[in-house]
Structures are given as C-alpha cells and as structure tokens.
Amino acid sequence: MLNISLICIGNLKEKYWAQAVEEYSKRLSAFCRFSVIQLNEERISNNPSPGEIDRILNAEGKRILEKIPKNSYVISMCIEGKQISSNELSQKIEDISLSGKSSLCFIIGGSRGLSQQVKQRSDFKLSMSKMTFPHQMARVILCEQIYRAFEISSNGKYHK
Length: 160
What we know:
By secondary structure, this protein is of the alpha/beta class. The protein has helices at 15-28, 50-67, 86-98, 116-121, 135-153, and strands spanning 3-9, 33-39, 73-82, 103-108, 124-126. Strand 1 (3-9), helix 1 (15-28) and strand 2 form a beta-alpha-beta unit. The two termini are 25 Å apart. The relative contact order is 0.24.
C-alpha cells in the first residue's frame, strides 16, 4: 500500500477546514496510508524585506526537508508548477506506485511559498490553478484531489 504524506506549513485555524481534511483522510485510508504533517509558520513582520522573506523560506524549507520520508517521490505545490487534470493526477499517482516507490510526499509551503532547496528536491512541481487560494483551502482541495485520483483509478462512482 502506498504511503502518502502531506507536509504543510501552518495549522488549520477554522474547524471546518480541519474537519474536511479529516474526512478525506478517512476516505483515503481505503486506498493508501495517508498522513498530514503540519509545521509551524515562521514569524514575519508586516512589511518584510527580501532578506527576511529569504530567511523565512529557508527556515521553513529546512524543516520541510527534514520531514520528507526517505526515498519519497516529492510533489511540491507551487505557482510555477504544471497544471494537470484530475485524470492526469490519478495516472501520475498510479505511475509512481508502479515505479517501485512506496512513498509519495506532497508539500504545501507557507504564505510566501517554498524555498529553492525544497523546489530542487521535488520530483514534480504542481500548480492547482492560476488563481490564488488561501493555504487552508488549498490543503482541502489537494486532499480532495488525491482522493478523487484514487477513485478514478479504481473506477469508483465519486468522479464524474
């Protein structure tokens, strides 16, 4: 069974976002071992300098890299990533599973994005959309899409 980790910066503050992630985690248990690893956001001033932003990205990035399971295929969520369909994500997860990898790791950075080190460690960079979403919503959307991907692969009724 494939192990899927979601490493994300920041906690879910609203109860309804946490409940949505919990629901998709429960549903995913039929298809994989799914876990969410939440890391604290670095404190940032109201008007950060480029140097402060770099420091924050590097500090968060270092903590992210420490949490990536060994030998994982890593998919980072970033604006410059490739946009793919739900069917293509399903195929990608299936291909990763068949390639001999037992661990897949998705990464969602903080509000300022991801460090270059995390992007370099990534095997694939994925963008949800050209639109901007709150990080909490992005986490729920990603969980839903991972669940949808497994439903597509198993010819389930969920995907229409």
